[in-house]
Amino acid sequence: MTNDEQKTSPNATPSPMVKKRYRADRDAIDRKRLPLAVKVFGVLCLAAGGATAVLLTITIVTMVLAFTSGSLDVEASTATVVIFVVETMLYTALATMFAIFGIRLLRNKRKHAAHGTEAMIFILAAIIICSIMLNGLGANVIPHAVVAVFLIVMQSYLDPALAGERELRRKLRDMETREQAEDGTLGLDPTGRGYITLNFFNLFWIFVVCSVLGLVIETVYHVLVVDPGVYEDRAGLLFGPFSPIYGVGAMLMTMALNRFHKAPFPVIFLVSAVIGGAFEYAVSWLMQFAFGIVAWDYTGTFLSIDGRTNGMFMAMWGVLGLFWVKLCLPWMLRLVNRIPWNWRYTLTTVCAALMIVDCGMTLMSLDRWYQREAGVAPDNAISRFIDDHFDNQYMEERFQSMSIDPDNAARTL
Prior knowledge:
Layout lengths: L2 H6 L7 H16 L4 H34 L8 H29 L3 H26 L6 H17 L1 H12 L2 H10 L16 H27 L17 H14 L7 H27 L1 E2 L16 H26 L4 H33 L7 H9 L2 H7 L4 E2 L9
Antiparallel strand pairs: 1-2
């Protein structure tokens, strides 16, 4: 292989010197003392999180004792009760994590505190899902969104790798960036343990590109196999050619398989099949219990699991995972690296903001679709705006694969 071929090879890895310098910079930042204001904030997190966790624990114990003794009269459905209990337990876990987060800030454990925010983000996402299933999408989500933004900001600030990246971006010259691009190492994991760096930039563009590719694949599959010659709009968002289930699925596979990109084909296939099947099941369950929506039903097919996923589609997820990890991921990295260095963060920020708006509008429109089917009249300006621009006819034409029945949802009106 010539030098030019080595530079453009998708399997190029950072040199040992680059890895050593990266680890040294990351460790130096991790040892750097946190500002006093952050320490004070850590005290507040410890106090508030600990007190809240204790109160929530007492509440859970009291509810369980009242329920078992028969003094608590529960009229809601079993699913609603289960979701409410799970939500309360998640709140307790989140409060406990905030207390631990405060302790780590006080002990100057920057890296561990950053890892804690990642766990809290996942717990908060689960709380938001439970809240939507119980109360729909409204003002109840705003406090959660504020906390989520705060956690993302703290994670970006505390993570030694991200902090090191910010410092390197300020120090690196354009010539160094061009050299990395020419060597084919831009975007690769500097530690060499994984294939790519699992940062927001790479994962966001994986989500966008795979949302589009997934929509194309599903549309073609429907035209050729499901209903030959008949086109059906398979989009998953209100605007644009996006099917977010494939985007999120690709992100999950990338995070799970990043360190195993050189693993044998059967391992990658099985892991991808399990991840894809579990994710497809979870999305189907969420859509049904949150909005009463059924977008697919595999009941009666081979290895069907509650009609939410089956053996054939899990196998398809496994094949997609193989193609993604072995072939598409290197191509994806080369494609993203075509974005000019001076534009990539600004462009990513703008596109991420637009995608958040699209996702938010989609959720609100689905929620309002559910409310209209349930006979709930609009009670605010946003609901009236959605009714005027995204009525039932629009939603049925946009989401042609979906059917909605409020009786399938877990929420109470």
